Amino acid sequence: MIDQINQLKTEIQSFRIENVDSLEAFRLQFLSRNGKVQSMFGLMAMVPKEEKALVGKAMNEVKNLAQNVFDTAKSKLASNETKVFGALDDISLPVEPTYTGSFHPLTQALDDIKQIFYRLGFNIADGPELEDDFHNFTALNFPPDHPARDMQDTFFIRKSDDADVNDLVLRTHTSPVQIRLMKEKKPPIRSIMPGRVFRNEAVTAKSYFQFNQVEGLYVDERVTMGELIETLVMFSKLMYGSDVNYRVRPSFFPFTEPSIEMDIWWDNDTGGQWLEILGAGMVDPNVFEAVKIDPEKYSGYAFGMGVDRIAMLRYGIDDIRLLYDNDIRFLKQFTS
Ligand code: DAH
User: Fold this and answer.
1) Domain with 228 in it: what CATH number?
2) Is residue 91 one of the residues assigned to a domain?
3) From the CB of 281, is ligand 1 less than 6 Å away?
4) Any domain includes 265
5) What's the whole-model pTM score?
6) Of the four, 105, 127, 157, 225, which is 20 to 30 A from 299 by CA?
7) Rounded CA gap, 83 and 79, in Å?
8) 311 & 189 share domain
9) Domain annotation covers residue 95
10) Domain count across the chain
11) Which atom of ligand 1 is closest in space to residue 215's alpha carbon?
């Protein structure tokens, strides 16, 4: 008898209820008045007295099981009424993609800049963010009273009235890495130097107290201004496409002579405008002297570009603060 009950139990458990029809079939087969559960109870009369308690208990368990299976399946079918498939019915269905993160627009722009200059034969160098006055200013031919040394632009970490003590500053540009490189290595030198720089400026949509630059330096015998401009034009075309609209203007920097700036035309809703993306020039002989490279024998060009500007231009971002807020709604747009 117990065997028969167990067999019925297995039958109930292996019955697949997939829709209203099979639910009804299950009810008829097991739970109706003529169903298998009820018939099973009819056999009770044949069970010897001393086994009745045990068998009765097993029968009741099977009856409850059948009722449970029925109830569960019924409510599941009701809640699934509008769905074509149940949760696990088709494991080959494509899943909803989840957001897996993305590179920051500054990282993407920097990666592209690095890749372009790598193609043009430059390697990568870096230097410290905490600099001394000599590397950040003096060796770059800034006169002692130059306004860029003023408290307004520079975060001074240690400032002393004693002329023998070198002031410590957060570097205001990546140009001091040029000085470190030229002190360390003999020409030919052909490197880019990416890094974070700091300026004591009011935070607005256009300026921030930190930003990113990529410095470039090429020193060898007979390096010319023509090569500099050709390299910058090539860079703009690789970065923005061969139809990019650019212009080169004369400018001034203490550490280059002559000096230029390059602008890129930015098309926008209000008709567009020129945006300056970099400064550049031929390394000033005074800079070569500060690092003990013979200016009679060597010449070189240098450039410094703003990565933030380049990223903003490329992605049409009009507020630099967005680059540093780390708002996920902003960053999500740069999934590649
Ligand atoms: N250091 C300059 C700045 O922060 C940018 C610059 C201009 C770098 C001309 C250069 C250069 O190497 O040749 O504004």
Assistant:
1) 3.30.930.10
2) no
3) yes
4) yes
5) 0.72
6) 127
7) 9
8) yes
9) no
10) 2
11) 12
Q: Which is nearest to 295 in space by CA: 261, 254, 250, 257?
A: 257
Residue nearest to atom 6 of ligand 1 (CA): 304
Q: Are 320 and 211 in contact (CB under 8 A)?
A: yes
For residue 128, the enclosing domain spans: 105-331
Do 155 and 271 have their domain in common?
Answer: yes
Q: Which residues pair with 128 in a beta bridge?
A: none
pLDDT in tens, the chain (336 residues): 889 899 999 999 999 998 889 999 999 999 999 899 998 888 888 888 898 899 999 999 999 999 999 999 998 888 776 555 566 667 787 888 787 888 999 999 999 999 999 999 999 999 999 999 999 999 999 988 888 777 668 999 988 888 777 889 999 999 999 999 999 999 999 999 999 999 999 999 989 999 999 999 999 999 999 999 999 999 999 999 999 999 999 999 999 999 999 999 988 788 888 989 999 999 999 999 999 999 999 999 999 999 999 999 888 898 999 999 999 999 999 886
Rounded to the nearest angstrom, the distance between the alpha carbon of 44 and the centre of ligand 1 is 99
Residue 154 and residue 76 share a domain: no
Atom 2, ligand 1: residue with shortest CA distance: 304
The verdict on residue 99 lying in a domain is no
Which of 135, 171, 255, 310 to mutate for ligand 1's pocket (most ligand atoms within 8 Å of CB)?
255
Q: What is the spatial distance between Cα 336 and Cα 333, in angstroms, rounded to a whole number?
A: 9
For 302-324, give the DSSP string: EEEEEHHHHHHHHHT---TTHHH
Looking at residue 84, its amino acid is: V
2 Cβ contact list (under 8 Å, min separation 6): 54, 55, 58
